[in-house]
Each structure stands twice: as structure tokens, then as C-alpha cells.
Amino acid sequence: MPKILVTGGAGFIGSHLVDELIKKNHQVIVVDDLSTGKKENLNPQAKFYKLKIQDRKLSLIFKKEKLEIVCHLAAQMNVRRSIADPIFDAQSNIIGSLNLLENCVKYKIKKFIFISTGGAIYGDRVKIPTLETEKEQPISPYGIAKLAIEKYLYYYSNQHRLPYTILRLANIYGPRQNHLGEAGVVAVFCNQLITKKPLWVNGGEQTRDFVYAADVVSAVTKALPKKVQGIFNIGTGKQTNIDNLAKKIIQIANTKVPVKHRPYIPGEQMKSCLSSNKIKRALNWQPKYDLNKGLKQTWDWFQNQQIFGKISVKKTRCAQTVFARNFAEYLLVK
After folding, report:
1. What is the pLDDT of residue 266?
2. Burial class (CB in 10 A: 0-12, 13-18, 19+), 251
3. String of b and e for 36-74 (b: at least 16 CB within 10 Å)?
4. Which of 122, 142, 164, 289 is catalytic?
5. Which CATH class is domain 177-209+237-271+290-333?
6. Which H or E element spans position 241?
7. For residues 94 and 88, what is the distance between their CA atoms, to the nearest angstrom?
8. Integer angstrom CA distances of residue 227 from 34, 140, 162, 279, 304
9. Cis peptide leading into 129, omega within 30 of 0?
10. How many CA atoms lie within 13 A of 305 on its CB side?
């Protein structure tokens, strides 16, 4: 079985991917700087290096481990921070990815899988559900950086014959998602319910395509073979507005809390929904989790975290003070 490097392997999606790869008997190397990833997410059977992907020491890992496949998930993922500090975003996402790609060429990596983004790349002026052939119109430095990496991959493929697959993800949710750092709306809502807070919604009619983390991992594993190349959307093809999402989570949690509304955030994307017909035809992939099933498993995980003391109302409130209350609020419908 090929030895696989997973960057960001201590993070939300990355750690689930590492677990699945190890289950399939792959040797897995994880590189993560733990800026958003967590040590408790790390699979003990994976070999771990705490390192930023832009660090020159990355080449030592490639040389030592004799890697064959790279799954690149490490990223500065905060859209708001990318707007406030585009240089920081570019250093983390673009420069870090280039450092990774240069090592892939030098050490003759057989396959590169890049976890990109759907909504942030396509923007609002596209057909719904959105096909991979739609024009990319990112409106944030985060989306621009993701698109830039995709274009660099095209270059490295033509110049150095590096095989690659790009997976453009819809809105991912599931166990281990951070309600502060990554701030997916499902995680934010679950945390608000755990801490007995109202569910705050900015606007409410915005739609998103929610795809469960395990389905994303399934798509990545199907993309591992060298012959699988190109760009694929990973989504359900179904829109859910944020008001309805709040109602579903409250129902699944079997609790009663108020849903409160605030105005839309200016510049916020209004609709996002991805067609996954291409990957269904090419790789026979389709999501196995509908929204109700995925939300139930996510809510159960948040409850277990509370039971075992990993979610504390006091700690949550302190953290929100440190990172500023409107940080999570802004990203409610990221």
C-alpha cells in the first residue's frame, strides 16, 4: 500500500481521512502545525510531524519517509482573516502549497490530491447546482488563494508531469468540527444548543449545500489512484436555507430554544450548491448521509464531548471573548 502524507491531518476533515486511510492499511504521515488542528484528533498509528507546510524542513520529511501520495488539506481557512490580512493568507495557503509542490516534484510523488473549495471559488453569479465548468469568480483572498493553487497544479502537471486531483468541497459538517476556528454553521449551532444559547441567524434565507465529513473522506479515497485526475465537486446537490437548518437541529436535539435573527452581512454569498454528477459518473461516488442522519451523528458527538468534559460553558464563553463574539457570528453561514 502506498505511503501517504496528509497535511492538516490533525484537523476536522484531515483527521477523519487519516483514520480511514489507516483502516485501509495505508502507512500515513501527518504534517500539521496544530494552529487549528488538535492533538486529540491524531490517530496514534500515524506518524506525526508538527510543522508548517511553508517550512523548509518539509523537504527532510519527504526525503526520510519516501512518500508516494500527498493529500493536501492544510490551510488558513478563515475567510474573514484572509480579508483582513491577505498577505498572511497568501503566505499560508499559496507559499505553503508551493513549498509542498516543489518537494513533490523533487521526490517524485506519484499523486497529489488537493482539497479545494466550492462556494468560495464559484461565487454567486452561477447556476445552481453549480457544475465544474462554471466560471470561477472568488470574492475573497481565501477563494483567490484556493483558485491560484489549482492553477499552479495545472502548471506542475504540464511542466513536471505531476498527476493531481482537485476536490471542490461544499459546506462540510460532522464530528470534530471546531465551533470557533473553522466555524461551520452546524458546529456553531450545536455549540449554542449545548451552552443553552439562542440560535443566532444572520438573515436566514441564504442557502448552503451541507455534505457530511464521512462522505468527503469517501471521495478522497476514491481519488487516490493515479489514473483519477481532474476537478470534481463534492456536494449533495441540495440547498438548505439557514432558517430551516436551525429548525432541524433544534428538532434533532429535542430541545426548545429561540431562533433570533440579525441582518444579512454585506457581501455574504447568498446561494451555494454543487452538482456532483461528474464524480458520480467517473468514480461512482455519491453522498450516503442525508442531512437528518448527518446532523444526528454530529449532535450526538457534541453531546458526548459535553458529557466527557471537553465542551465547557465557561471555557466556551472565555474563548469567544478572546476571539471576539462577532468572529463566530460572521462565519455562521460560511
Report:
1. 67
2. exposed
3. bbbeebbbeebbbbebbbbeeebeebbeebebbbbbbbb
4. 142
5. alpha beta
6. strand 240-241
7. 10
8. 32, 32, 12, 14, 41
9. yes
10. 24
Q: Where are the domains of the chain?
A: 4-171+211-234, 177-209+237-271+290-333
Residues constituting the chain: 334
Concerning whether 164 is annotated as a catalytic residue, the answer is: no
Orientation of helix 291-307 relative to helix 242-253, angle to 10°: 50
Domain 4-171+211-234 has CATH 3.40.50.720: yes
Residue that is written with C-alpha cell 503566505 in the block: 91
pTM: predicted TM-score of the whole model, two decimal places: 0.89
Residue 236 has pLDDT above 70, yes or no: yes
Using pLDDT thresholds of 50, 70 and 90, give the confidence band for residue 125: confident
Q: Indicate the residue type of 127.
A: K
Burial class (CB in 10 A: 0-12, 13-18, 19+), 102: middle
The whole-angstrom separation of Cα 197 and Cα 210 is 23
